[in-house]
Design goal:
27% strand; 5 helices; ligase; 222 residues; Rossmann fold; binds ligand PMT; metal-binding; single chain; FMN binding; FMN; alpha/beta
Length: 222
């Protein structure tokens, strides 16, 4: 059913896997396909929101009626979120963001030389954590992709990154997580479990997450 629960709200979604360049032809990335984030963007649009989708590497076709900002690295994604932040009502970070990037980015293709090669990595900016600190009226929704102890790690991220909701995604289960059209998630807030969802399409998971976020805004009179 079409509900306009998010009418008048500005929703910013991040999707896909960030790309951290090693040289002009090589990079570090991850298995995120962007499907979860794109589903969130479509669902938010259906629910009446003004949507900006910040997309890192993905093969998903851009939805025609949604504003898409393309990015590569965690740093780019941070800048893109910054640009949308002030009038944002809900930020949902479904993107799989690199935790580390190469310290140096070579200007030309690195040549094969010795038998071993060492790549030094440095921490990237934690986007969620830094916006968690800057939060004023924005509702912040994070994901936690885990392969075990999903609840514990998710709830720890919720508190540490100062989030309003976290979507715990146990990506070790068949039909859940990276690359597939379905997902299995549980949503938590500060006081505990909000909703434990069975195996559902990512489109349906997206509706449930946005619905929980919309309820939260309403409860808090925002
Ligand atoms: O894209 P799909 O193929 O559809 O797969 C969906 C998904 C598995 C990628 C998605 O459901 C998911 O779980 N996304 C979060 C992946 C992730 O990076 O989780 P994490 O536990 O490493 O990070 C926790 C949260 O912090 C995430 O919201 C992440 O966007 C954010 N983060 C992480 C690192 C960083 N430097 N900055 C961040 O903002």
């Amino acid at each position: 059913e079409a509900n306009r629960k998010l009418g008048g709200k500005k929703v910013v979604i991040t999707a896909g896997g960030t790309v951290e360049r090693i040289d002009p032809v090589r990079y570090i990335s991850n298995d995120s396909s962007g499907k979860m984030g794109f589903a969130l963007a479509r669902a938010a649009k259906e629910m009446g929101a003004e949507v900006t989708l910040i997309a890192a590497r993905t093969d998903e076709a851009p939805p025609g009626d949604i504003r898409v900002v393309r990015v590569q690295s965690a740093d780019d994604m941070y800048q893109a979120v910054s640009a949308e932040w002030d009038d944002c009502d809900i930020l949902i970070k479904a993107a799989a963001v690199a935790d580390y990037r190469p310290r140096e980015r070579a200007e030309t293709k690195i040549k094969k030389a010795g038998d071993t090669m060492t790549l030094e990595l440095v921490k990237t900016v934690d986007i969620l954590e830094s916006f968690g600190q800057r939060k004023t009226s924005q509702l912040l929704v994070g994901f936690a992709a885990e392969t075990g102890n999903a609840e514990m790690y998710a709830r720890d991220k919720l508190v540490r990154k100062n989030l309003d909701l976290i979507v715990a995604n146990d990506v070790g289960q068949p039909g859940a997580g990276f690359g597939v059209d379905t997902n299995i998630v549980s949503i938590y807030d500060r006081s505990g479990l909000v909703e434990e969802l069975p195996l559902l399409s990512k489109d349906e998971v997206a509706r449930r997450i946005l619905s929980a976020a919309g309820d939260r805004l309403k409860e808090e009179g925002r």
